[in-house]
Design brief:
With 348 residues, this protein is an alpha/beta fold. The protein is built from eleven helices and twelve strands. The structure holds 5'-O-[(R)-(carboxyoxy)(hydroxy)phosphoryl]adenosine and zinc ion (ZN).
């Protein structure tokens, strides 16, 4: 059993949690969304400064909520890659300083491995192998989870991430930031068959299409053209129908690929993670398709889909149990493939 305090500051949430293996003792998320809303997206410099303001109070809050003392902790963890370097540095430096001060092991965590571990918090009995469909503002990945630290990316986006596509289309429709929840809300009132839109496929040099990779830039352009055409025709833009049609197209594209990965690699469970996992269209499409193929789908509750430190702590606790710790010289990395996570650890 390992009890870990984890810090997550890779983007626009300052989050701290205390996790006992696959059980959350406390989890605090200080969101910066209202701060970035006026710019229509995350401003990296603003994010780092805000993390700096918030991180100490968030750590104190998480510790108080858990009812634990520093002496109860077995390790201190932080997200170290991938993400905004300035933002990552705040949580990473706080964690390394605490590890040194309190004489605890330090564990650096890959943000995407954290999203995978959210499903272990939902189902502590879950064991690899399984497929993780990771859909966030920065990633769209189909990951074959083989063991702790052992991942194979089967497919990913070639351009925009799923969440990025939601945010960009929302901007086209003059909706607020972040756009995903707004499109989700409007789609519930619209007709998903109102406007046929292209799903986007990656051609292979030998002919045919890549079975698992996605592309959303063509879909985004198709929505732009549609909006321009409708605006020329005059009248009010049918925002609900456009949202519903766009959402259904993304949901179909992700579902088709996730099911293909699961069947081809004989994986019985699909664990979904990342902010877009909150999307009701995706939930419905994927559940229906998975049921037809006798596959199990895990959709974590929304607070575990979006960025949080509980998932980071859960991943860190597993690494710590296996004797994986990180050197205090570990730096922040804006990019790091999930297949390379073991670079972060030295074996105790
Ligand atoms: O995982 P996350 O909180 O942060 C990243 O690591 O990126 O994901 C944020 C993304 C945003 O693009 C947001 O628009 C999207 O998740 N999102 C949604 C929904 N809720 C959040 N997209 C579609 N439907 C939603 N309900
Ligand atoms: Zn994330």
């Amino acid at each position: 059993m390992a009890i870990v305090l984890a810090i997550e500051t890779s983007c626009d949430e300052t989050a701290v949690a205390i996790v006992n293996n696959r059980h959350v003792c406390s989890s605090v998320v200080a969101s910066q969304i209202p701060l970035h809303q006026r710019y229509g997206g995350v401003v990296p410099e603003v994010a780092s400064r805000q993390h700096l303001e918030t991180v100490n109070g968030t750590i104190a809050q998480a510790l108080a909520d858990s009812g634990m003392q520093w002496s109860d902790l077995d390790g201190i963890a932080a997200t170290c890659a991938p993400g905004l370097v300035g933002a990552l540095l705040v949580g990473l430096t706080a964690a390394k300083t605490l590890a040194l001060l309190k004489q605890k092991p330090f564990i650096g965590v890959h943000h995407l491995e954290g999203h995978i571990y959210a499903s272990y918090l939902v189902d502590p009995q879950l064991e690899p192998p399984f497929l993780c469909l990771l859909v966030s503002g920065g990633h769209t990945s189909f990951i074959h989870v083989q063991d702790c630290g052992c991942y194979k990316t089967l497919g990913q986006t070639r351009d925009d991430a799923a969440g990025e596509a939601f945010d960009k289309v929302a901007r086209l429709l003059n909706l607020g930031y972040p756009g995903g929840p707004e499109i989700d809300r409007l789609a519930a009132q619209g007709d998903p068959t109102a406007f046929p839109l292209p799903e986007g496929q990656i051609s292979l040099p030998e002919g045919g299409y890549h079975p698992y990779d996605t592309s959303f830039s063509g879909l985004k352009t198709a929505v732009l053209r549609l909006v321009q055409k409708l605006q020329q025709q005059g009248g009010e833009l049918p925002v609900a129908d456009i949202s519903a049609s766009f959402q259904a197209t993304v949901a179909r594209s992700l579902t088709r690929r996730a099911i293909a990965c699961a069947l081809d690699y004989r994986l019985k469970t699909i664990a979904v993670g990342g902010g877009v996992a909150a999307n009701r269209g995706l939930r419905q499409h994927l559940q229906t398709a998975a049921a037809k193929h006798n596959l199990r789908v895990i959709f974590p509750p929304i607070h575990l889909c979006t960025d949080n430190a509980a998932m980071i702590g859960c991943a860190a606790a597993d690494h710590l149990e296996r004797g994986h710790t990180s050197p205090l010289t570990l730096g922040a990395q804006s990019r790091l493939a999930i297949g390379d996570v073991m670079q972060l650890y030295s074996l105790a």
